[in-house]
Amino acid sequence: MSQVGSFILLVVAAVFILAGGGAGVIIGQLFTMGF
User: Fold this and answer.
1) pLDDT tens for residues 4-30?
2) DSSP 8-state symbol, 2
3) 34 with 12: CB under 8 angstroms?
4) What is the structure's pLDDT at 13?
5) What is the Cα 24 distance to its own chain's centre?
6) How far apart are CA 7 and CA 3, in angstroms?
7) Which domain does 30 fall in, by range?
8) Which pLDDT belongs to residue 1?
9) How far apart are the first and last CA of the chain?
10) Segment (H or E) for 4
């Protein structure tokens, strides 16, 4: 994955975490599986 793509994913994950804990946990699991 490109650095730009990973950076965008980090930003999106941060937004989800700030928006709601449940969504943040799901995004965290996706990151764990993706990387």
Assistant:
1) 888 888 888 777 777 766 766 777 777
2) -
3) no
4) 77
5) 7
6) 6
7) 3-34
8) 57
9) 10
10) helix 3-19
